[in-house]
Amino acid sequence: MQVSAGKMKKRKIHESAGDRTLGIVCYIVFAVFALICVYPFYYIFINTISANDLSARGAILFWPEGIHFKNYISALQIDGLFQAAKISLLRTVIGTAATVGASAYLGFMFTQNKMWHRKLWYRLIVVTMYFNAGIIPWYLTMRNLHLTNNFWGYILPLIVSPFYIILTKTFVESVPHEIQEAAEIDGAGIMQIFFRIMLPVIKPIMATIAIFSAVNQWNAFQDTLLLVTDNKLYTLQFILYQYLNQASSLSALANSSTSGSAMAAAVATTQTPTSVRMTVTIIVVIPILVVYPIFQRYFVKGIMIGAVKG
Q1: What is the mean predicted confidence (pLDDT) over 257-285?
Q2: In this structure, are residues 302 and 171 in contact, taking their beta carbons and an 8 Å threshold?
Q3: Distance between CA atoms of 101 and 186, rounded to whole angstroms?
Q4: Is residue 146 part of a domain?
Q5: What is the pLDDT of residue 97?
Q6: pLDDT over 60 at 11, yes or no
Q7: Residue span of the structural domain in which 233 resides
Q8: CA-to-CA distance for 91 and 74, rounded, in angstroms?
């Protein structure tokens, strides 16, 4: 074993010129790719803290100029922003928890031979991935269920997701069946097996689903556009959508929301549609960027095991 280890070390030390060249090329390619991914966020951020007149002219490309943070102060004073943040946070937390719980339970149940007509129910759920009635029938259904201008219209339609159920089912099938058989011999019921045995085992796939669901809930705005007219139920993403479609009125909105003192009025006069739009974009994106690394360590394991059986 010591000889083999020594040989491996020598091989690592004495790399060929081709290996070194390939390594350098890979580092360069990945560095460029990382820069391409990060630069849009960096570009938006430096424009939010730069002089607004320069930002409006597109003069800020790589380095901030005339650094200030008045844009964030003005954006945080926009009417309805904190209420929208509250709604976005609530729908993300509640919706993600409900989706993860339903996906975990249904994915587990569809692996149980004792379930009544298990294959039929599974196929009925999967078929919804391929057939969609369209927006109008969906809207009529939501209206008939009294889910228009209703917070639960954000939650209930997304609880059962065929894709997440398939991932969970495949993950559960990769767990040795002997674990469940041993629990059954000890007298454990189906619910005890699910909560006490399976939930701790399937944490990686649950974390993966939590990431997907949280990003989907946080970024959603189309359901607000179609179902909600009450501004108390607007989400951050919908407000951003409105800003993107009404850029000409953004500065006026910022001016009216920050009027109240001589200093605030002075700050408001410096606002531009570009500055407000980019500032709100950063405010909307930051929370999901903070949450994502928390679940990242589960992500690769969960998605690989959940997607490939065996």
Answers
A1: 61
A2: yes
A3: 26
A4: yes
A5: 93
A6: no
A7: 79-238
A8: 26
